[in-house]
Amino acid sequence: MRKIQLYTGLALIALVIAAGLVSLVWTPFDPIRVTADRLLDPGWPHLLGTDAMGIDIISRLLIGARYCLIVGIISVSLAAIAGVPMGVLAGLSGARSGWVDEVVMRVNDVVYAFPALLLAMLLAAVAGASTVTAMVAIGVATIPAFARVARAATLEVAASDFVLAARAAGTTKWSIAVRHVFPNIAPVVGVQASVGFAMAILAEAALSYLGLGTPRGTPTWGGMLRDAQDVWYTQPVQALWPGLAIALAVLGFNLLGDGLRDVLDPRLREVR
Amino acid sequence: MTAILRAAGLSRAFGSFEALRGIDLEVCKGQRLGIVGESGSGKTTLIKLLAALDQPTAGQLWFAGREITGLPERGLGFLRSSLQIVFQDPRSSLNPRMKVGDIVTEPLRSKLVRRELQGVDRKERLREVLAAVDLPADSGDRYPHEFSGGQRQRIAIARALAPKPEVLIADEPVSALDVSVRAQVINLLADLVDKQGLTLLFVSHDLMVVRHLCDSVVVMQSGQIVERGTTAAVFSAPRTDYTASLWAAVPRIKV
Predict the structure, then answer these.
(1) Taking residues A45-49, what's their average pLDDT?
(2) Regarding the domain with residue range B73-80+88-165, which homologous superfamily does it belong to in the CATH classification?
(3) What is the pTM of this model?
(4) Helices marked H in chain B
């Protein structure tokens, strides 16, 4: 029964991935070209209607799925690639030379305390608002989350007898990190990645909505939400579709994260 | 007889708690020393210091005549392959995500090990040590969780033997095992120590096992050595009440 979260999450994510893949080869209508069929209600042939520019909403949603996945993958990878080694370094040196741990984690605290939105505005001001600046801002802002999770997991692994045995065998710190620490903290990092993915999708939507992310005209879910705001009083249903898409994708990754945690955490497993 | 391990005034404090207070100890080549004492008496802290897995807050330590206190990790190569540890619980001393073959040969892969080990054929050595601890030859390709508790402790012993150590430290090696396999593992250990002429430091609170396995013994209480001598002398005529009470606590069957 516990696995129902995992499977629901996987199903929702599969849906998003399928939508993204389909959009690579086929969309029912041109997702960019402006037409005269403005603000049509859901019906045939535009199943979910058209937006204020006369563009088919389903087509835009499909393309949006692709953006959402790209943003998630890039920003989570960025955060994990920077954050996890920092956390492992801090965790491994924590026991013996405390100052490395202190320096690394205080730097992370500074990043953590810096508002992500401000960072996004800063980047947008310097480099111009684009999907890339949004991804970088989201990635940098979530580095501390990965560093902390990795550090906590590393401390646990580093205190285990098999790491002591490895040290007694003359294994270098580097090899201990590669052979013993990374494989054993991978499940925890995986959980954090899937939760971080959900957060990244939401953050990108928010940044696009505020005009700090993907520029107008590109079919992202956040951007569609912003466009829908203009016609909110006459056509509130326009906001429903991108909102629903965001909610389902975020829910999917959150469920995956929770499901993974349940499956991978031995302490929870024993309670079952 | 030359001392292979020597400690002088070894102390270790954790904050204001003194886990070890001024330990003086000499272990000779080929000696089998039992370290006994109740939980919290500092046995495990002591062996972590002896294995250079922890730094003493005071005192000095020599291995084979070379001082090891204060040496950086890369200066400890001679110790790392010459002194090996078998930990209490093989469930936590074997990395669950490594194959047994990789676990056992890990001490041979270190860049720090003695020069004579660097040319050793790891596969060959794996076969030798697996045979020495009576594990199936194909064990190397499997993961630790596929083995029983007793077998896992054999894996840990095989790993300790792989670099041909001179000193073997066993930290309560059977207390996490089923009673039914304890004797097997103890006998295996005794056998290997005999055959390979190892120096053994055996930490236990099972005095019967210590009497069976060791020729000499130190008794620890609250971070200090309160009694030492040959096993026979210490157990037949304990000089402190503490040793006497430890000895009296051993369950015996009256015949």
Answers:
(1) 81
(2) P-loop containing nucleotide triphosphate hydrolases (3.40.50.300)
(3) 0.83
(4) 43-50, 77-82, 90-93, 100-109, 122-132, 149-161, 179-196, 207-213, 231-236, 241-248
